[in-house]
Write a structure and sequence with these properties.
Elements: E1 2-3, H1 6-15, H2 23-33, E2 41-43, E3 54-57, E4 62-66, H3 72-81, E5 92-97, H4 101-112, E6 116-126, E7 140-144, H5 147-156, H6 165-174, E8 177-182, E9 212-216, E10 222-227, H7 236-250, E11 256-260, H8 264-272, E12 276-287
Parallel strand pairs: 4-5
Antiparallel strand pairs: 1-2, 2-3, 3-4, 5-12, 6-11, 6-12, 7-8, 8-9, 9-10
Helix pairs in contact: 1-2, 3-4, 5-6
């Protein structure tokens, strides 16, 4: 049955018990409950309303699935019988926990005769009990992204065909989106004894250009992390990542990132950031043509 309104919050509260493994769907449920996005339609099982089985879909055949490890049989039965999914279409499953991927493969083959492809990623998660203090620097400011900052981030993203620039501009007005901006007017050394005050971070002027950026996306994870080439290895990616992390914690989200197994720079970054650790595996899954 479809979940709306308070049902989204109730479902989020239930699967919160499974963190970190439910991190993406937990955040997405909160985003929709709070009215910050409306990309997905959520479903839970009418006959098993206390289960943690969740299916959510978009108009573009993008599908999310979640269940606990001991519920995979229930999920398999659901996928075989639900009229919500058209297995003859180009379904695309995202952020799928590793123990669910074989179920998708089995059901796809039995119903449509099609094999799957999958791209695995490591999910790094943040321990919200860690109070990270982000030290300010004299040469830069840390701000919420302004219009130009969001535009730069969007244009540098390899997968921007999945969303319009206007959509991500609106998204970044509602969700944590952070940039590091050069501060040529500031003089003197940074105050190493202080920390960036999350309550006093302001939005950058729309025309200002960031040297590093990141945001929380409507897929629930932190992403789109980038730095201009001439400013690499200066610690700016760490600054934006940790600032965005603490803003997510402040707003009640569960910070996590999905890192491709071939993305060595991001693996090194999050392996060394305070409070972060690799937690579990997910995959992007699609159906091959016959």
């Amino acid at each position: 049955m479809m979940c709306q309104g308070e049902m989204l919050l109730k479902l989020a509260s239930r699967i919160k018990e499974d963190l970190p493994f439910s991190s993406s769907v937990y955040n997405i449920l909160l985003l929709h409950y709070r009215g910050h996005c409306n990309y997905y339609t959520f479903y839970q099982l009418r006959q098993h309303q206390d289960s943690h089985v969740v299916l959510y879909t978009s108009k573009s055949n993008k599908v999310g699935l979640y269940c606990k490890k001991d519920e995979v049989q229930l999920l398999e039965e659901t996928l075989k019988t639900t009229p919500i999914l058209d297995w003859s279409s180009n379904l695309f499953f995202f952020h799928i926990n590793d123990y669910i991927v074989p179920i998708i493969s089995k059901v796809a083959l039995s119903i449509s005769g099609r094999h799957i492809w999958s791209t695995p990623s490591t999910v790094f998660t943040f321990d919200a009990s860690v109070d990270v203090k982000i030290k300010p620097r004299a040469d830069v400011n840390v701000n919420l992204l302004g219009h130009t900052g969001v535009k730069v981030m969007y244009n540098s993203w390899d997968y921007n065909s999945s969303i319009t620039e206007d959509e991500i501009q609106q998204q970044c007005l509602r969700l944590p989106a952070v940039g590091v901006y050069l501060n040529s007017e500031t003089t003197g050394p940074a105050n190493d004894s202080s920390a960036i005050d999350l309550d006093r971070i302001v939005r950058a002027p729309d025309e200002n250009l960031p040297v590093s950026w990141v945001c929380m996306s409507t897929t629930g994870a932190m992403g789109l992390l980038g730095t201009q080439k001439e400013y690499l290895r200066k610690g700016f990616a760490s600054m934006v990542a940790q600032t965005c992390t603490m803003l997510m914690v402040k707003e009640g989200y569960y910070p996590h990132v999905h890192v491709d197994e071939k993305n060595d720079p991001s693996i090194r970054l999050f392996s060394n950031l305070e409070g972060w650790k690799p937690s579990y595996l997910v995959s992007w899954v699609g159906l091959r043509s016959k």
